[in-house]
Amino acid sequence: MTIKTKPKLYIKNSSEKIIKEGYKYLSTPYRLGAKPFQTNEFDCSSFIQFLYGQLRILLPRTSREQSLLGEKIEKKQLKRGDLLFFTNRKGYRKKGINRVAHIAIFLGDNKMLHSCRYKGVTVSEFTEIINENKQRRWIDYYLFAKRLPDYYEYIMGDNNNEGLARSQSYR
């Protein structure tokens, strides 16, 4: 009798690998609705999807869908690599995930890595003014943060030795 066990794949410091990869794309132009998995332009969620995809971690395409993953983190517990979610003027009064309009990666020291329409891929401070008319800052639009697990399970295919890396947070 043979007992089959699922092999495990551990990705150590995946957040640092994602951040390092993200820095390679600084100044890449922003385009709302950018096509997934290409590097000549990004919107905020295609940028995050692409970076995680480089580690073969498949994330949904939109920031709203991405906001459903992981464990919610209090602002005072933020760690480098956590995902930050923001609203905008239009989403401010909406409910649930419909409020989510932007995603970024926390870098520490009140900084984040993201793709935004004003600068493309950039590092911004939470206190940076993004709405000159109303003197609004990123922190004024902050909703919540999520942490994705550093552990991923390697799922074996039924008929071959190929697998798919999948985050535990999908369960």
Account of the protein in words:
The chain has 171 residues and is α+β, with helices and mostly antiparallel strands. It is built from three helices and eleven strands. The chain has helices spanning 14-23, 44-53, 63-66; strands at residues 8-10, 71-73, 83-86, 102-108, 111-116, 120-125, 129-131, 136-137, 142-147, 151-156, 163-167. The strands form three sheets. It has a six-stranded antiparallel sheet with strand order 2-9-3-4-5-6. Strands 1-10-11 form a three-stranded antiparallel sheet, with no helix packed on it. A two-stranded antiparallel ribbon has the order 7-8. A hairpin with a 3-residue loop joins β5 and β6 (120-125). The radius of gyration is 17 Å and the shape is globular. Residues 152-171 have low confidence and may be disordered.
What would a concise description of this structure say?
This protein is α+β, with helices and mostly antiparallel strands and 171 residues long. Helices cover 14% and strands 30% of the residues.
> Tell me about the biggest sheet?
6 strands, antiparallel
Radius of gyration: 17 Å
Number of helices: 3
Number of strands: 11
Mean pLDDT across the residues is 84
Portion in helices:
10-25%
From the spread of the alpha carbons, the general shape counts as globular
Q: What's the N-to-C terminus distance?
A: 30 Å
Structural class: alpha+beta
Strand order of the main beta sheet, please?
A: 2-9-3-4-5-6
